Request: fold
Amino acid sequence: MADDKVLEKNGLYYPPQSFVDKAHINSFEQYQQMYKRSIDDPEGFWGEMAQGFHWEKTWDKVLEFNYHRSKGPISIEWYKGAKTNMTYNCIDRHLETRGDQPALLWEGNEPGEDRIITYRQLYEHVCKFANVLKGFGIKKGDRVTIYLPMIPELAISMLACARIGAIHSVVFGGFSAESLKDRIVDSKCSLVITSDGTYRGGKAVTLKQIADEAMDHSEKEGVTVPKVVVVERVGAGKGIECPMKQGRDQYWHDLVATAEGDCPVEWMDAEDPLFILYTSGSTGKPKGVQHTTAGYMVYVSLTHKYVFDYHDGDVYWCTADIGWVTGHSYILYGPLLNGAQSLMFEGVPTYPDSGRFWDVVDKWKVDIFYTAPTAIRAVMRMGDDFVTKYSRKSLQLLGTVGEPINPEAWRWYNEVVGDSHCPIVDTWWQTETGGILITPLPGAIPTKPGSATLPFFGVQPCLLDDEGKEVEGNGVSGRLAIKAPWPGQLRTTYGSHERFETVYFSDFDGFYFTGDGAKRDEDGYYWITGRVDDVINVSGHRMGTAEVESALVSHPTVAEAAVVGFPHEIKGQGIYAYVTLKVGEEYSEQLKKDLVLHVRKEIGPIASPDVIHWAPALPKTRSGKIMRRILRKMAAGESDFGDTSTLADPSVVGTLVEMKGK
Ligand code: 6R9
Reply:
């Protein structure tokens, strides 16, 4: 059927008619009307959008805020005065209507290893574990660090925390002991939940020993974790050790065996914290982005419904790890709030082979598939056969997130994966934004490969020039900022409101600054061009160049380091490190390897430098500032470095060029 295809006209891609017919928002006019209303009357709009949830007490005021640092402290409050509970809305609210429907579909690392958990079963698991937490004395406001692989216990732990009002801080399982230690220390958590180990492809690797090392080190910094819960994921005989510390460590299965299957919820104030999630910025250590209860709940639920055009009964799969914000908002909270069947995948796209995604799509009859450009590029490279040998008939919608998608990968995703039958939503957002901000609504907004298109309801993006003046009109570019709050926005950074204000609100008074650059084309569509600060995006993961630099400098041979991103075919951006050694140290291939290993140990494998470039000296201005522009160009293989006359010593550039590849 011709009308069953995505149609291209003058560079715009239109959804198939059959998709439009059933879409929640099914015309551009409807999008425009709703958008206009959301901006003209935010309180009316967001008050209405909050109607379907359970409110133990409704709000007194929908929105109160100050975005101007010049007028006082930055504050953002949504649904002020309301009382509710996230877990109640994710689970209890659905028990009557869909208790026996699957909530989580779990696909393990090995094909054939899976679990289905219904809403009722999830209720029991969560209540039991919530009672375990209470038994440890965990109460409202306490922080719980969760360092787990993609297993159901991760979701259960988060929901159990939310049920009793504890604040979860999930740490991605690929982070090193050092990174985990930083997060434990900053959050001063009362409990760590981890597992004996996890799988990387076909191999079992330890997590518990990493967690132990992190806790040993946190103790030296004054934070002693009193209790640790260990999930047995791998078990004995797989070559990993799981030392248990008497009096501190207990197994999950022993604890839940005797726990009660009901646990009353803690009614939370709208603005009570729900979770902290650490993310990288341009300076210092990662910061704990803090999200609160009611606004985040309404926002992730609504975006999940409209952006993915989610309908009852759809099987929805987001391939992210819950250790990142995408997993928090669009594997766990958004889908469960909407009563969805959310697939949770423990493995990687290339194990046992590069057809795994589509094997899983066929197995579970996935309707909606959401992944990252880096994963698309990785499987695209392996050839179409890995895709076309699977039917993929169930697929109706495709999504991407994490970094700009190059038009070539977008077209391949559309034509090969989606058989030109599924609209694609390229969703732009951040850990800080809680949910999707710029995105197509698939039944209403025609797409362009590489553009995240238009703002979601209630979101007012704008472009600012270097002086902080708004750039009006279309066909322009600038720094991407947002003019007014949306309910899913972060409220502070954990432990320091000052840092929150400095990072996001001090560059441009009256705006939330995203750190991204963007252009707005003739049709008003947004194209994100990447970070304008010292943050690089490696395989969709945010990495502060300063973090990698300080890891390098902590090696005994290194005097100084400067890290920049460079274009990388699969990862989007790779990590390129210029390293100056201490006097007397010698360059060698072995030292390069040692430095890469050192960074892996300090931060984790995702931060491994792709290139180490020996730098007898770094190009610096007279005031001592490293001219990263030159380093970026050199890393990208360019030979025109622009004006170098402001350097303290312009000859440094020639020396660096000579050292390339040495
Ligand atoms: C959700 C998430 C945020 C940064 C963001 C931007 C980049 C995310 C994007 C995108 C272009 C998209 N980014 N989605 N760039 N198009 N669709 O990824 O959060 O890990 O905090 O990263 O990722 O640079 O500022 P987070």
